[in-house]
Amino acid sequence: MPMEKLVFYGFKHQQIPPSFIIPPEKRPQKLDLPVVYHNTPIIDLKGGAEGALDRSATIQQIFKAIEEFGFFQLVNDGIPEELMEEVMEVSKEFFEMPVEDRLSLYCEDPMQPVRVSSSIVYENEEVHYWRDKLRHLCHPVEEFKHLWPSKPTKYREVIATYSVKVRALALKLLDLICEGLGLQPDYFNGELSQMQSILINHYPPSPDPSLTLGLPKHIDPNVITILHQGDLYGFQVLKDGEWIDVKPLPNTHLVVLGHQLQIISNDKLKGVEHRVVSTNVPRTTIAMQIHPSMDCVVEPAKEVTDDVNPAKYRSFTYQEFVDSYLTSVIDTQKTTKPFKILA
Ligand code: OGA
Ligand code: NI
Q1: What's the number of domains the chain is made of?
Q2: pLDDT in tens, 119-129
Q3: Cα(306) to centroid of ligand 2, in Å?
């Protein structure tokens, strides 16, 4: 096991190893505390009860939020508060266990269905980021559950319940988005949402948050991500050329659109550039990601393209996109370039 890959496991860092120091032009600029939060969009799903929701008003709110900010936070989304607390608890416990308990899941192959990794180095980048992660597939739950971590003891049960509930929530949001785009009602229901992964991010405290980053600027590769970020700050989005801090609200999920939704909507909807800054306290987040199946063919929906608005992207398989993403994630323009139809 290369030691530099295990740099966070069980260590308390007094100093930042040089390979983790972010080049000056990519360092977070303002780290003034207390953090100043912008007013960012909040969408109320009325407890998830179908009848209570005014669909067209909600669709309008979602589209406005995406247009202005590229993301939104959900309140009353029907995911029980106790479940969110339990999910956060088992996630934190996982990263508090002794290193040995995680080592058997350590793996550098991004295609493994269950894996622990650390301090990612994206290709073409020398820098390591101040983050450990556990990522695994979770749909259908029965197919993957036996591969998930067996410790903490409650992990499998809690994450299984959460995976099913968040999947239903994500599909409901996709339904609303589908309706807003004028696509056929089941557009996202098959292969386009077949794969689901959970990504548990653990950001250890940084000895100097001005020199490290939890995650660099990126757009998620998948369709849609539902993030449970607990109550600690660290998540930032790029808005009008400025990084803004997003206030962590208790019992909410944060929704970001990924590259696939942007492409399917032919750029009517945009994936949002975001990053994670380091802080001096440990922070754990849980990202549930809906992806197409690997061999699913993705392309701009026929309903959003015509002679006036021709398709801006060619068809490709999600596998092709992921392979390309892994080599270009650092540059959000480059990520979609191989799939663009040039005017
Ligand atoms: C991600 C991500 C944000 C966070 O996992 O893609 O952007 O706050 N996470 O952990
Ligand atoms: Ni992300």
Answers
A1: 1
A2: 665 545 567 88
A3: 31
